[in-house]
Amino acid sequence: MSVNLHDSAYELEKALRNSDEYKTLKRLYDEVNADPSSNQLFEKFRNMQLQMQQKQMMGQDISQEEIAQAQIIVTDVQKNEKISKLMDAEQRMSMIVQELNQIIVKPLEELYGSVEK
Amino acid sequence: MSVNLHDSAYELEKALRNSDEYKTLKRLYDEVNADPSSNQLFEKFRNMQLQMQQKQMMGQDISQEEIAQAQIIVTDVQKNEKISKLMDAEQRMSMIVQELNQIIVKPLEELYGSVEK
Ligand SMILES: [Ca+2]
Ligand SMILES: [Ca+2]
């Protein structure tokens, strides 16, 4: 990869790291991490999400009991202000990363567009 | 999104567009596009790939006949120097985009790492 590409990527990395959105996200993560009960609930939620995704990918059935348990966790998460705020910030960051990607890969899209014609 | 983030993303987009790798990729695309028989074969190959992917995603069987037809297309593609060169350049570009992404999202990975602990 050219030096210019590398340098530009690191500039963007730095801009992301210094953005208000990243700083907010980091603060909210730290707050969840610093609170044992929120941290535990958040990990439970993440594990549940991962298990559900894996079952779906492998075409396995999700039982009524699992659905009921998941709903309890989701309700607990929604009631937890620290986690709710963190998840909102995660979603905003995820949209920013998507927007950045759309900008960066535009030259490639133009290329594919011209070949598809 | 902050102005700084936007500007940095556009700088990277420009660096990508001006990179030797992108210019090579564009030239090879244009060469395939300008040659009717290569262009037609390349589109046939792309459509075949897409169909196979869709069947796999939907859990549909791929027949022996489809496999045989796919193998003929792949052999034709491998024998076509214009397309082979283009596909090599595409692979290099795909690796570059992956590397760029790894650099950019490093701040986020650090965050997730600290929460997983
Ligand atoms: Ca074409
Ligand atoms: Ca933790």
Automatic annotation (TrEMBL), chains A, B:
Annotated Gene3D superfamilies: YheA/YmcA-like
Superkingdom per UniProt: Bacteria
Lineage of source species: Bacteria, Bacillati, Bacillota, Bacilli, Bacillales
Identification of the protein by name: UPF0342 protein R4Z09_05395
Any Pfam family matching the protein: Com_YlbF
Family the entry assigns: Belongs to the UPF0342 family.
InterPro entries: Com_YlbF (IPR010368), YheA/YmcA-like_dom_sf (IPR023378)
